[in-house]
Amino acid sequence: MRHFLMVLVFATLLVLTGCRATDKTQGTPAVEEEKPTIGTVIKAVKENPLRGRRWTKLAEHSVDLDGDLVEEQVELYTAALRDPQGELMWDDGQEWRLLVRDGQTVYPLFSGYVQLGSVYFVLGAGDSERPSEVIVLITTGTGLSLSSYSYSKEKNGFVEEGEFTSRSNNIMYSSIQGYR
């Protein structure tokens, strides 16, 4: 009888706390962001995307992404902070921001929570037929996604040109190096 009461109490708590059904192949979302659809234009934001919490800058690089012969700054941040010895204090997941700064103008290419994973970026040089691009790789314990963004003068923002999401529901091994 005691076991039955414990199960009943547990089931009641699940119902009261809003337990919801999830896709059995995906479980809970590993990446929670306001995901733009392909072709979506990422416009500059007025508010500072880093406002409201402390951030650790993991990577940055300067490159001309909009063809104006002035380099923009691409910056990657995580909410994981460093301990007194300088080591990152990772949690099971953290917030991430990937920003492109063009002077005082900021474009948030990625802004979201990544569960058991990391965010990486690669910068691809453009040519006379194709603009430079920012390629974003997001790894999680359940898979990976790859997106490409390039600046459009006509649309006055970065356009998501493509996306790939793996079909895996459990990553067994990755040779990608972690952040230090």
Describe this structure as you would to a colleague.
By secondary structure, this protein is mostly beta strands. It has one domain: Lipocalin (Beta Barrel). Helix content is 8%, strand content 42%. A hairpin with a 2-residue loop joins β8 and β9. The longest helix has 15 residues. The protein is globular.
Reconstruct the topology from this structure.
Elements: H1 2-16, E1 31-33, E2 41-42, E3 56-63, E4 72-78, E5 93-102, E6 105-115, E7 118-124, E8 133-140, E9 143-152, E10 157-165
Antiparallel strand pairs: 1-6, 2-10, 3-4, 4-5, 5-6, 7-8, 8-9, 9-10
Global morphology: globular
β-strand percent reads: 35-45%
Low-confidence stretches: 1-29
Helix-strand topology string? HEEEEEEEEEE
Largest sheet descriptor = 5 strands, antiparallel
**CATH-assigned fold name:** Lipocalin
Rounded Rg: 20 Å
Oligomer: single chain
Q: Architecture, according to CATH?
A: Beta Barrel
* Termini Cα gap: 52 Å
H/I helix tally: 1
Which structural class should the secondary elements be placed in?
Answer: mainly beta
Number of strands: 10
Question: Biggest sheet, strands in spatial order?
Answer: 1-6-5-4-3
Question: CATH top level?
Answer: Mainly Beta
Number of individual domains: 1
What is the percent of helical residues? under 10%
